[in-house]
Write a structure and sequence with these properties.
Distance between the termini: 37 Å
Number of helices: 5
Oligomer: single chain
CATH superfamily: Winged helix-like DNA-binding domain superfamily/Winged helix DNA-binding domain
Strand content: 15-25%
Helix content: 55-70%
Shape: elongated
Number of domains: 1
């Protein structure tokens, strides 16, 4: 179970979506990430730059069918940070849920 830690870098909505989208695959093509999240090339690049600066993602460049392809990889540090952030959000949700249930009880 990951240690709950709120991560301000990952918490930004697009960065959270990027990390979550990268979890099931070893890597994803830049264009696939862009299209799945409905971002422009420049917006995705900006978010990936922030994630990469923290060691959460990396870009791998290769040639496929004679074309340059950029793949986005969620690093082990990125996976750990994402899992810790999600664990913290779940912890916070349990607190809120508990508070709402106790507030709903008649006194």
């Amino acid at each position: 179970m990951p240690h709950p830690v709120f991560d301000e870098v990952i918490h930004e909505p697009h960065r959270l979506q990027i990390c979550a989208y990268l979890v099931p695959a070893p890597s994803r093509d830049f264009g696939d990430v862009r299209d799945a999240l409905g971002l422009s090339d420049s917006a995705l690049s900006k978010h990936l730059k922030s994630l990469s600066a923290h060691g959460y993602t990396r870009l791998d460049r290769s040639v496929r069918d004679g074309r340059q392809v950029t793949s986005v990889v969620l690093t082990p540090s990125g996976r750990d940070a994402l899992c810790g952030h999600v664990a913290e959000l779940q912890r916070m949700a349990r607190i809120v849920g508990t508070d709402r249930r106790s507030a709903a009880r008649p006194r």
